[in-house]
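Team,

Forwarding the record for the chain on the shared tracking sheet. I've put the sequence and predicted structure together so nobody has to dig through attachments.
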Amino acid sequence: MEKIVEICCGSLEDALISQKAGADRIELNSAMHLGGLTPSMGTIKLVSEKCHIPIIVMARPRPGGFYYNDYEFQTMLADIKSMMDFNIKGIAFGCLDEDGSIDKDKSSMIIDIIHKYNKEAVFHRAFDCVKDPYEAMDILIDLGVKRVLTSGLKPKAVEGVDLLAKLQNKYGDKIEILAGSGVNASNCTYLINETGISQYHSSCKSWRTDLTTISNVSFAYAEAPHEKDYDIVSYDEIIKFVKAVKER
């Protein structure tokens, strides 16, 4: 089976580093320390112009959960419609009802827009907040979702390995399963062996210092020892990750 490496990127620089290091696909976000939010249209424009590998763009209007009110959902729809102007492969999104089930109405509206432009609908890790993963997967398949990013309903994919294997076995011929969260060069072989999943998502995160982060006031968001840093992708970590996934 063909192995696919997807790198979670938070900037144009991240995307170009990921492409150079051999990633097969990128997921483009902003504010990755908040779990990933919708990137700016300028970022999408530049990345789509300068990257030749497939680009999946995050549509997430705020941090926190995935139960969106009308203001938030209208913002999602407006962003997604604007994204369709760019040379991207698809959109990552996730809409849940307040009880933790898939919001079929909102998801269907988003998927209709995505499919109208012949792009891929990807359901992100909102899936890991559902109550019944099997019911949720059946719904997403019926709605026409191409791929689901999941850690097997656990904080890290290695902790959700049993469910990941079950989902791949039951649904792998109907929808693509993309394993993510805490996935790296040191554990991807274990995940491949245990689950049979062929697609892996990683941030391959590193840090870069900006001394202006803490001065008269603090704009730090990272914990010690990275108070003055911001996150970027690591070329070396991606190289190792790609090698580990592909050579398995």
